[in-house]
Amino acid sequence: MDTSRIEKLTNAFGPAGFETEVARLIPNIYKGSKKLEADTMNNVFIGLKGEKKKLRIMLDAHIDEVGFMVSYVHDNGMLGLHALGGWVEHNLPSQIFLIRNDKGEYIRGVVASKPPHFMSEEERSRGLKLDHLVVDLGVSSADEVRELGIGIGSPMVPEVAFKAFPERNLLMGKAFDCRLGVAALLEVIETIEELNLDLEVVGSLSSQEEGGLRGAQVSARRIEPDLALVFEGCPADDSFLAPPEAQTLLHHGPMLRHVDRGMLTHPGFQSFALGIARKQDIACQEAVRSGGSTNGSPIHLSNAGVPTIVLGIPVRYIHSHYGYASMKDYGATVELAIEILKAINEEVYQSFKPF
Ligand SMILES: [Zn+2]
């Protein structure tokens, strides 16, 4: 498996609201012939002005990642943190972040917490909060921070370089949520171009998912799909749980959720997709999620209502510096999406309505 595109996508800098680097990468790595367009929110569309055929299906993946923004600059040069997306505080100390300065350069900083030597008993026993943490650029004054071109509002992401271990079908890196989905979406759109399906397929690489599922609200209104297929990098739960509690295992195929906090997946579309996986013998997993949400949430409620399913590529340690994902799961996700698109038609879509 060629992982060079995944490498470029996951190494790219793009916290929620600051996706321009990722968006600008798309024209260089997309190999299909459909037209690319971007909007002012950093949403990227593939094939937006396509010929209107019977059925329009939106394929979505978000291009942003979790990161932070500088919330204040202390007199001693330490930077406060405002989260762009969901983070767990105890994953942060001693980790390196890249902060983009006003010239577009990346400056390294380490997340510092108070050393144990200076902590009181009370400080040791209380939980870690984000406002106990600072990013240290190795400077000693606010003036030095200014000279580096950094100030409040400067965005940052984890400094992590992608690695592939093909002999173990394993990928390691940052931003697998959702750049693995972006790579899968591109591959699906390129592959189906040769199949001449009787469908209008529009790609949506949406911004600000981690900032509150915002870009997809705009892209769904713009695309006006009949149906949607959302690609995600979704949390694997097999490090601390075993089945049946664990429902999203590494190397077991994409996860199709029946429900999460933002969507009750259309039962007809969900069972149609699961049926295709069974028929084509493609590994996949089913989950009932009481937490989390995806772009499926705004998309399925857009326009006149859009039956939507989510294909989640399992990622261990999502929303932290280092994630693990499986090449097999990535491949099975692409394969399943293609088979679903091959099988969808007007009759299937009509069967999703009660009469
Ligand atoms: Zn995501």
What's the short version?
This protein has helices spanning 4-11, 20-29, 121-125, 142-147, 176-193, 215-223, 267-280, 296-300, 327-343, 346-350, and strands at residues 36-38, 44-46, 56-62, 67-73, 79-84, 96-100, 106-112, 134-136, 155-158, 163-165, 170-173, 200-206, 227-235, 255-260, 263-264, 285-288, 308-316, 323-326.
- Which hetero ligands occur in this complex? zinc ion
Text of the CATH class of the largest domain: Alpha Beta
Mean pLDDT: 96
Total domains, how many? 2
SSE arrangement, N to C: HHEEEEEEEHEHEEEHEHEEEHEHEEHH
Fraction in beta strands: 25-35%
Q: How many E strands?
A: 18
From the coordinates shown, what is the CATH architecture of the largest domain?
A: 3-Layer(aba) Sandwich
Through-space gap between termini: 44 Å
Low-confidence stretches: none
Classify the fold: give the CATH topology of the largest domain: Aminopeptidase
Spatial extent as radius of gyration: 21 Å
Going by CATH, the homologous superfamily of the largest domain would be Zn peptidases
What does this structure look like?
- The protein has helices spanning 4-11, 20-29, 121-125, 142-147, 176-193, 215-223, 267-280, 296-300, 327-343, 346-350, and strands at residues 36-38, 44-46, 56-62, 67-73, 79-84, 96-100, 106-112, 134-136, 155-158, 163-165, 170-173, 200-206, 227-235, 255-260, 263-264, 285-288, 308-316, 323-326.
- The relative contact order is 0.18.
- It has 355 residues and is an alpha+beta fold.
- 27% of the residues lie in helices and 26% in strands.
- The N and C termini lie far apart (44 Å).
- It folds into two domains: 4-65 and 174-350, Zn peptidases (Aminopeptidase, 3-Layer(aba) Sandwich); 67-158, Beta Barrel (Elongation Factor Tu (Ef-tu), domain 3), CATH 2.40.30.
- Zinc ion (ZN) binds at residues 62, 177-178, 209, 232-233.
